[in-house]
Amino acid sequence: MGHCYQLTDVSFRYAQDWVLLDFSLEVAEGEFLGLIGPNGVGKSSLLKLMAGLLRPNQGGVWLHGENLVSLSPRQIARRVAVVPQESQVLFPFTVAELVLMGRFTHQEGWGWDSPADLQIARQAMQAMDILPVATRTFRELSGGERQRAILARALAQQASILLLDEPTAFLDINHQLDLNRNQGVTVVVVSHDLNLASQHCDRLVLLHEGRVYQAGAPEQVVTPDHIRTVYGCDVIIDRHPEAGTPRVTLPQVGPRASLNVKRSFLPNSE
Q: Are 50 and 62 in contact (CB under 8 A)?
């Protein structure tokens, strides 16, 4: 199995402080990789660097052996589809029109939609259970339907790499799993939900102070010591009764401290 991504000594900052510092990572083709760590640790910035939306101040990001800075946005989009954390659609596009935009990298000239484009878009909408709302505008959709519509657009791109930034609880992770397992698509997901990431990802990368603090199978990464160091709190870790993966729960502590910790890495904590 080869590597689709190689990040070598990547350093990045927006202003003064370094977000990532001498950061190195390899992503194998076909793996389901989870990026975890506290808020502000650089997970979303890392995903944007991998998508070519940001450029490193130092070091390099290599996609299938080519430096991302040498590739055009269109060349990157043929291989990489991105589902951002917040999706703003300013114009009143229908769901079908939005999903068809995922076909732009495969079109030449003016980019008129071919029968094949229409069929692929239809299949993507079907896979994400949004075919019944295909003629509605994006604004009319519920939060869950919006997430699925954006993911359907990414599926219509037919890229071999899918980058997901904090998919919400509305998003059915099984769709991503099916895509990953059956078609060999590489999935990299930023997640604040340690339990969901542990249950579904092949490998986790825990970020701390701009670098990889720990990487490996969920049971190697999600340990009380690692969580204490990176998140600054004590947790109880047992095994999920069905999946056998690490399951994180909080000890019964003061309500304010407990809430702050929950907001960092557990779902449905508001």
A: no
